[in-house]
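Reviewers of the previous submission asked for a worked example of the structure-prediction workflow described in the proposal, so we include one complete record here. The input consisted solely of the amino acid sequence. No template or homolog information was supplied to the procedure at any stage.
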Amino acid sequence: MDNHTILERTPTVDEYCLLREAVGWHNLSPERTQKALDRSIFAICALYGESVVGCGRIVGDGHLYYYLQDVIVHPEHQGHGLGTRMTQAMVDHVYTVAEAGAFLGLMAAPTLAPFYEKFGFQQRADDRPGMSTWIKKRI
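From that input alone, the workflow returned the following structure tokens.
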């Protein structure tokens, strides 16, 4: 087993911004970032020692619509299964709290479709970007 730990917690603004920067995503102001993080339905962090090296969030209305958001793993820590472990934990959370018929979606680069298909997501039609799955039962 590697030295990475997955915890249910929201990253700090600094942790989140450093991860976004590491993967080449732009950042917004700390104030707006904090507001966004505060509105997460569920958040998870991957730690290496005391350092946050990955994170993921679920956003949405918490009843009918859920979206996987910001699944990020620092490039130096990719290849250890952290993205898989974090995504599985987030999908498991939604299946635990959502009722049958709820929607779980995400937006991802087309090259990542095979990764998300492992969790039951299906690509949408070309005129409907993203991937999604409908909650069929609680686990």
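The chain has a mean pLDDT of 90. We consider this example representative of the routine output the project will generate in years two and three.
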